[in-house]
């Protein structure tokens, strides 16, 4: 598939604000600054579709994007939603904000009728933090399919990539899970992620 169109649809902090269109959804979650919005831009090839910032905590609402995928063999188009979620684990966010964060994200994960899987992003340079592990365990416990994406792969040497991937697997306490190295500026991992999306859309 190719992504031939991408547009912003809506922002939400509660279920009533989710888009009405019944399209399959993929959500992106991860610590603040891990590169969620950058990944969405690189996947869609639309610069500035999702707002990117060097300052953590940029994305504060659940943001829906409508993407059009074109199947290479048939030329047919299929629409789906990408969902950009606010980052977790940002120390400077006030305690009350954090509670609210948990509440509306939890509502999304547990009550979205169209969510197919979650991409959890983890910075490839560091060992997963406590908040990453807690998020991952929570998704597994709630039977939400997860794809781990190791971001900013361009920031370490090629040789270090596999070592870091193994470290992430070990820290999360899982042996068999696929972890996809990704670099937004280099578009590394993009073809693989498109394959996963293809499998979701043909189902
Ligand atoms: P919040 O919205 O605050 O939760 O952050 P986010 O996860 O959406 O991160 P964002 O995409 O805004 O990126 C944060 C910073 O990391 C920006 O300065 C990006 O340019 C940088 N960045 C993101 N992805 C990559 C990557 O793959 N490689 C490199 N080198 N830098 C990246
Ligand atoms: Mg963001």
UniProtKB/TrEMBL annotation:
<comment type="similarity">
    <text>Belongs to the TRAFAC class TrmE-Era-EngA-EngB-Septin-like GTPase superfamily. EngB GTPase family.</text>
</comment>
<keyword id="KW-0342">GTP-binding</keyword>
<dbReference type="InterPro" id="IPR027417">
    <property type="entry name" value="P-loop_NTPase"/>
</dbReference>
<dbReference type="InterPro" id="IPR005225">
    <property type="entry name" value="Small_GTP-bd"/>
</dbReference>
<dbReference type="Pfam" id="PF01926">
    <property type="entry name" value="MMR_HSR1"/>
</dbReference>
<comment type="function">
    <text>Necessary for normal cell division and for the maintenance of normal septation.</text>
</comment>
<keyword id="KW-0717">Septation</keyword>
<dbReference type="InterPro" id="IPR006073">
    <property type="entry name" value="GTP-bd"/>
</dbReference>
<keyword id="KW-0460">Magnesium</keyword>
<dbReference type="InterPro" id="IPR030393">
    <property type="entry name" value="G_ENGB_dom"/>
</dbReference>
<keyword id="KW-0547">Nucleotide-binding</keyword>
<dbReference type="InterPro" id="IPR019987">
    <property type="entry name" value="GTP-bd_ribosome_bio_YsxC"/>
</dbReference>
<feature type="domain" description="EngB-type G">
    <location>
        <begin position="22"/>
        <end position="203"/>
    </location>
</feature>
<keyword id="KW-0132">Cell division</keyword>
<keyword id="KW-0479">Metal-binding</keyword>
<protein>
    <recommendedName>
        <fullName>Probable GTP-binding protein EngB</fullName>
    </recommendedName>
</protein>
<keyword id="KW-0131">Cell cycle</keyword>
């Amino acid at each position: 598939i190719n992504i031939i169109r991408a547009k912003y649809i809506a922002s939400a902090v509660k279920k009533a604000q989710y888009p009405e269109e019944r399209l399959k959804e993929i959500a992106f979650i991860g610590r603040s600054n891990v590169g969620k919005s950058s990944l969405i831009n690189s996947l869609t090839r639309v610069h500035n579709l999702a707002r990117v910032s060097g300052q953590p905590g940029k994305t504060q609402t659940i943001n829906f994007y409508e993407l059009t995928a074109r199947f290479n063999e048939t030329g047919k188009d299929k629409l789906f939603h990408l969902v950009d979620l606010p980052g977790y684990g940002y120390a400077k966010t006030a305690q009350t904000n954090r509670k609210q964060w948990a509440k509306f994200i939890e509502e999304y994960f547990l009550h979205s009728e169209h969510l197919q899987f979650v991409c959890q992003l983890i910075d490839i340079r560091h060992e997963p933090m406590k908040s990453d592990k807690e998020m991952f365990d929570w998704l597994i416990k709630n039977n939400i399919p997860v794809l781990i994406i190791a971001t900013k792969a361009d920031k370490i040497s090629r040789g270090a990539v596999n070592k870091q991937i193994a470290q992430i697997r070990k820290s999360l306490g899982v042996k068999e899970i696929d972890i996809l190295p990704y670099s937004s500026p280099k578009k590394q991992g993009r073809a693989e992620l498109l394959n996963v999306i293809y499998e979701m859309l043909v189902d």
